[in-house]
């Protein structure tokens, strides 16, 4: 019964718009006081939440993505891809998704990916007559690739919570990430065939392609260093983030795209996001400590194993819950609230935690573009200066594509597990 009261209290605090970090931390502290547990565990829990070498990757990846954003690297990347595929049917949409996929392989951030590519792609596509809701939905959905194609900040946090291999999680995200990108590209072709009219882009000359590609080569090399270094085992995800940040800094200064003022803005933006993420992690750690002492995860795990014998039913329930939670919670909060409760049940049901992590990330991708609290919706609204309703109208086909990918992941688990386990 206490499980229902505690979870109801948390939902109430979130509905009252108490910040997630303070909802989790405050409720956790109250539960510890209520049962008379020693409060010395509070600073210990907060310190242990921050004392993680792996979590150093979060601010470093954020710094890297913000430096690239301030340096206008997304513009070069989009122009290069557009020069090769822009003349295809729906080519600008294809260029947008490919650019999002490449930038996702650098930044690890959905918001940074959507904002960087959106600043260029939205104007280009709407000027060519593409239906505006389609354009806004495409960029918002393309941005979600930033948390699936490695490196991925949510996967880093998932690995910290569950103590699973972050390298395996990164590798498992490649297959579904590329598949999802291909599905988005396929939808662009369908739109071009059956959608409203648009003005085709003239095929670029070889000189134009060469000039555009030359500017984008440093960005592609940066992605290769970050991902290739992790895959080859040359460095850890945290070291990869540090190397990526250093190389990104060299690139933008070598291209004379960075000033002291822009660097300060990039550091300041990264600091704000990092503080927000770490406060949520600290609050979740305290809340997790409290509910563990109350035996909430154990009770839920026992209830699940006693009443749900089929993994398919468990996955279905989890997906429905995540879909509902995505209407009012952002992705990282969902991860930090749900995983301490769900993770103990995975072993009993024979569910691979690496595969489950990828499925979980695809579901929280949906949360990034589902109203009313989809973070990417607000990012695209701000970039495009459009009504939120216009962005929402454009994202529904992509939400259905994501849910279809979840279904495929269930029936074909090697989509995620082939690279880390069999390659």
Report on this model:
- The protein has 423 residues and is mainly α.
- It has one domain.
- It has helices at residues 2-15, 20-34, 41-50, 57-70, 73-85, 91-107, 110-127, 132-143, 153-162, 166-194, 206-232, 237-254, 260-293, 296-307, 311-325, 331-349, 353-369, 375-384, 388-411, 414-422.
- The radius of gyration is 22 Å and the shape is globular.
- It starts with a helix and ends with a helix.
How many extended strands?
Answer: 0
Please indicate the count of domains.
Answer: 1
Judged by helices, strands and strand pairing, the structural class is mainly alpha
Helix proportion range: over 70%
Instruction: Figure out the total of helices.
Output: 20
Largest beta sheet, briefly? none
Helix/strand order, N-terminal first: HHHHHHHHHHHHHHHHHHHH
Shape type: globular
Which quaternary structure do these chains form?
A: single chain
Low-confidence stretches: none
Radius of gyration: 22 Å
The percent range for strand residues is: under 5%
Distance between the termini: 47 Å
Mean pLDDT: 86
Describe this structure in a few short sentences:
This protein is mostly helical. The chain contains 20 helices and no strands. It has one domain.
């Amino acid at each position: 019964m206490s499980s229902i009261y505690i979870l109801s209290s948390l939902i109430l605090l979130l509905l009252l718009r108490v910040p997630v970090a303070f909802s989790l931390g405050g409720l956790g502290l109250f539960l510890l006081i209520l049962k008379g547990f020693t409060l010395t565990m509070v600073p210990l829990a907060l310190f242990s939440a921050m004392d993680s070498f792996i979590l150093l990757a979060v601010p470093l990846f954020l710094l890297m993505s913000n430096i690239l954003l301030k340096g206008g690297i997304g513009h070069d990347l989009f122009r290069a891809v557009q020069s090769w595929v822009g003349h295809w049917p729906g080519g600008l949409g294809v260029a947008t998704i490919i650019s999002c996929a490449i930038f996702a392989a650098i930044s690890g951030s959905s918001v940074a990916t959507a904002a960087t590519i959106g600043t260029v792609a939205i104007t280009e596509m709407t000027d060519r007559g593409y239906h505006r809701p389609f354009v806004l939905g495409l960029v918002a959905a393309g941005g979600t690739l930033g948390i699936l194609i490695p490196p991925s900040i949510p996967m880093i946090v998932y690995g910290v919570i569950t103590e699973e291999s972050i390298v395996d999680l990164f590798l498992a995200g490649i297959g579904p990430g590329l598949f999802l990108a291909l599905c988005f590209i396929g939808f662009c072709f369908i739109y071009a065939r059956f959608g409203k009219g648009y003005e085709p882009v003239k095929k670029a000359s070889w000189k134009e392609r060469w000039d555009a590609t030359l500017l984008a080569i440093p960005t592609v090399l940066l992605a290769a260093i970050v991902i290739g270094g992790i895959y080859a085992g040359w460095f850890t995800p945290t070291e990869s983030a540090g190397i990526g940040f250093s190389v990104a800094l060299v690139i933008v200064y070598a291209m004379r795209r960075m000033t002291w003022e822009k660097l300060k803005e990039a550091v300041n933006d990264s600091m704000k996001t990092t503080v927000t993420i770490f406060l949520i992690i600290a609050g979740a750690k305290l809340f997790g400590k409290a509910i563990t002492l109350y035996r909430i995860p154990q009770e839920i795990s026992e209830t699940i194993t006693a009443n749900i014998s089929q993994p398919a039913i468990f996955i279905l329930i989890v997906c429905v819950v995540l879909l509902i939670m995505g209407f009012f919670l952002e992705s990282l909060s969902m991860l930090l609230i749900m995983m301490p409760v769900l993770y103990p049940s995975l072993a009993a049901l024979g569910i691979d935690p690496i595969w489950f992590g990828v499925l979980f990330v695809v579901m929280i991708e949906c949360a990034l573009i589902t109203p009313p609290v989809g973070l990417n919706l607000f990012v695209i609204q701000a970039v495009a200066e459009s009504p939120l309703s216009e962005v929402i109208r454009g994202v529904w086909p992509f939400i259905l594509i994501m849910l279809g990918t979840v279904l495929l992941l269930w029936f074909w688990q090697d989509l995620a597990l082939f690279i880390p386990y069999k390659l």
